[in-house]
Each structure stands twice: as structure tokens, then as C-alpha cells.
Specification:
The chain is of the alpha/beta class. The protein is built from 15 helices and seven strands. Helix 6 (135-150) runs parallel beside helix 9 (222-235). It is elongated. Belongs to the glycosyltransferase 2 family.
């Protein structure tokens, strides 16, 4: 068990007492040691850890020291040491009793049941958040989860994203390049969460009761929040935010193509009698543009799921679906325009609202039914 500490002198000894009083070996079959990673706590936490390791918990507690460089760096060094020492399962928890020691055997039982990674979760059935947990903490945690999913693209199947209460088999950590991520704070936790669910490992979420810290202050800072956004942004190229940004970019350029083709054709065919036909050609040119670049650029996961080359049949099917989607969005725009105009809305605003509604429909249908992973379709 890795316990990172910084100014946790009031919590450390009671935590170790609680952990070593658990019947872990009898109940789960695992020999259980604790690695305290202290980063030069000015309150004497590191010195206390040394005394406890040499005294009442001799042979059960390992103490690792370092300079204060944030939770992420502390965890990386602690992982390195635990792997070097040959431990088969590496657990982590906070030192402030926000994670209940009584829940530790649940994580090991999940490992014994075949999980490669067991995560203590507040958000699965049976998990609890304290009734007196400050509203600001709840909002911050929820916002962090939303950022991780929308900006980072972390699989929504994983409910708990920001916890430090986990059990991981050594071979999993050996295959994750955690040493490469530049994270000092809780951005490191979201990096690990994403790495767990993007690998081929079995991940189990174990319901736990989360608690308000026993004593001391939260270590989170503004720089940790900024870092969290930075780490999340770099996680997955197919995150909903990045995909939506590409969708908008392609759509705007498609509008330019539409207008450009219409302008070009009018130069050669100035007869007003065929302007509708020219407009239809320009619309079709923008549809082909959008389809091509949505396939190659916006929805990259669609291309990757077909290995090197997308089959012609899949392309034709997707193109037909996109043509129908375009017809649907044009209908949405026209319907919104007629309804809102009749309600007295200024005609340009009515058209703009119709375009907005059509965009939402277009993106939803495109991302949900047209450019989807082949594996997802088969499932």
C-alpha cells in the first residue's frame, strides 16, 4: 500500500494502526506492507514515519523521501520503488482517512476474483459520499469528471476518475508509461484512469464510502486545476470536444466551398433560370467535401477501425446515410424557420436558430449512426 504524505502528522499513525489491524492476510491471502512516501513535510510527518518504521511497525513499513514536487511526482517515484521491490499488487490511498481502511480488503478481493485493476468508487451502486461533504468539493469533482470525459475522452463506462484509492497488478503498471506524463497534481490520477480503460485489462469498480478528511487541509491548488485541463486535453485525440471542434471546422469550410462553387458556376452560367440547379450542385459539392473530411479528419476512429483502408461498401453506405442526414437537417432548418417566423421571430434570427438546431441533429446522427467504430457496430 502506497500512502503519499505531506503534512499528515496527525493522521499517519492512526492510519497505520487501522491498516495493520485489518485481517488482510487471513481474509485475502496477501501479505500486506505499507510504503509511506513523504515529500519533506515541514510538520515532521517524514520523521514520524521513520520512527514508526523502526519501532512498532518494523518490517511492515517502508519510508521513501523526496523533495516536494506534487502528488503526481510522488506517486511515480513510489510506483518505481514498489515495482523494484517486487510487489505483486500495488495499492494506493490518501493519508487523510477520506478512504476508509476497512474498504481495503474489498480491493484485494476484487483482484483475487480476476480483476487486473480494482478502483474504489463513490459512483457505482453501493458507493457513498458523506452528507457533510462541502458543496464546493462535490462541484469540483463533478466538473473534473465532465472535463475528463468531454475534453479528455475518457471512457464513460468508468464512473470513478479522480480517486487515489486503487489496487493494481504490477504487470499493469509495468506496461503504462506513467514516468513520461508531466503531472504534479491530480492530473496524474486522470492519466492513470484513462490508461487503465484504454488497455486490455479487466477493471472492476468496488463500491466504497468516501469520507471528509479527518484533519489537515486539502492540497489542491489553482495550478493543479490548470494542469488537470492540460493533461485531459492530451489524453485522447477522439475526445468529444476535439471531435466537435473538427466537425465545426469542416462544416464552416464546407460552407465556403458551397458559396465558392456557386459563385464560380454563376460566372459561366449567368442565366437566372438555372440558378436553382446551380445552387443544388453547390450544395452537393459541399456535401462531398464534408463527407470526405469528416471521414478522414473529424471521425478518425472510424478510419482506424477499418485498418489501412475503408471498404468501398462501407464508404458508400456512410455517404448514403450522410446524404439522408443532410436532407434531414435542411428539413429542420426550414421547419424551424417557418414555425419561428409565424411566431413573430425576426427572420434572420429564425434562420440562425434553425441552423443551430440542424447542426445539433447533424452532429448527433453523424457521430452516433454514420461514423461509428466497426467493432461497436458489430456488437
Amino acid at each position: 500500500m502506497i500512502v503519499p504524505t505531506y503534512n499528515e502528522i496527525d493522521n499517519l499513525e492512526p492510519l497505520l494502526e487501522a491498516l495493520f489491524s485489518l485481517p488482510i492476510q487471513a481474509g485475502t491471502g496477501w501479505q500486506f506492507d505499507v510504503l509511506v512516501r513523504d515529500d519533506s513535510s515541514p510538520d515532521g510527518t517524514g520523521e514520524l514515519a521513520e520512527r514508526l518504521a523502526a519501532g512498532r511497525f518494523a518490517g511492515r513499513v517502508i519510508v521513501s523521501h523526496g523533495q516536494k514536487a506534487g502528488l503526481g511526482n510522488a506517486m511515480k517515484r513510489a510506483f518505481d520503488e514498489a515495482i523494484e521491490r517486487g510487489y505483486d499488487v500495488i495499492l494506493t490511498m490518501d493519508a487523510d482517512f477520506s478512504h476508509a481502511p476497512a474498504d481495503v480488503p474489498k480491493l484485494l478481493e476484487a483482484i483475487n476474483s480476476g480483476a487486473d485493476i480494482a478502483i474504489g468508487s463513490r459512483y457505482v451502486d453501493g458507493g457513498l459520499i458523506p452528507g457533510n461533504w462541502p458543496l464546493g468539493y462535490i462541484i469540483r469533482t463533478r466538473v473534473a469528471g465532465a472535463v475528463a470525459r468531454m475534453l479528455g475522452g475518457v471512457d464513460p463506462a468508468l464512473k470513478e476518475l479522480t480517486t487515489n484509492f486503487r489496487a493494481v497488478r504490477r504487470e499493469v503498471l509495468e506496461r503504462i508509461p506513467y514516468g513520461d506524463v508531466q503531472a504534479k497534481g491530480y492530473g496524474f490520477m486522470i492519466f492513470l484512469a484513462n490508461a487503465f480503460v484504454t488497455g486490455s485489462w479487466k477493471v472492476t469498480e468496488v463500491p466504497i464510502s468516501f469520507h471528509t478528511r479527518a484533519s489537515g487541509d486539502s492540497k489542491a491548488s489553482l495550478s493543479d486545476i490548470v494542469e488537470f485541463f492540460r493533461i485531459a486535453y492530451r489524453l485522447n485525440d477522439d475526445s468529444p470536444f476535439k471531435q466537435l471542434a473538427r466537425f465545426i471546422t469542416v462544416g464552416l469550410l464546407g460552407t465556403v466551398v458551397n458559396l465558392g462553387v456557386l459563385w464560380f458556376l454563376r460566372r459561366f452560367f449567368p442565366d437566372d433560370g438555372i440558378v436553382v440547379l446551380l445552387s443544388a450542385i453547390a450544395i452537393q459539392a459541399s456535401i462531398v467535401w464534408n463527407f470526405t473530411f469528416h471521414t478522414r479528419f473529424t471521425f478518425k476512429k472510424f478510419r482506424r477501425s477499418h485498418e489501412r483502408r475503408i471498404p468501398v461498401r462501407s464508404l458508400l453506405t456512410a455517404f448514403g446515410q450522410y446524404e439522408l442526414t443532410t436532407a434531414l437537417t435542411q428539413t429542420v432548418i426550414f421547419t424551424c424557420f417557418v414555425v419561428l417566423s409565424n411566431l413573430g421571430v425576426f427572420y434572420l434570427l429564425a434562420q440562425l436558430l434553425g441552423i443551430g438546431a440542424a447542426f445539433i441533429v447533424n452532429y448527433y446522427v453523424s457521430s452516433t449512426y454514420i461514423w461509428v467504430r466497426r467493432a461497436a457496430r458489430a456488437a
